[in-house]
Design brief:
Length: about 60
């Protein structure tokens, strides 16, 4: 019973460490050193005077 419990805790620790390493991988260069991660910009949504979503290139559209 204790062996099974230890196995469960060990596998959970391994899974947690691999998920953290996968998250940090994009922020490293080819040599493995940390670099500044690029942030992904969300597309800007604009609304017209009535509050409906429109293209930002239309006249009178304001960013929401």
């Amino acid at each position: 019973m204790i062996r099974k419990l230890a196995l469960v805790f060990a596998s959970a620790a391994i899974m947690a460490s691999t998920s953290l390493a996968a998250h940090a991988a994009p922020c490293r260069d080819a040599k493995g050193k940390f670099t500044k991660c690029e942030t992904v910009k969300k597309p800007t949504k604009c609304r017209d005077a009535k509050g409906k979503f429109t293209k930002c290139s239309t006249a009178g559209a304001n960013p929401a």
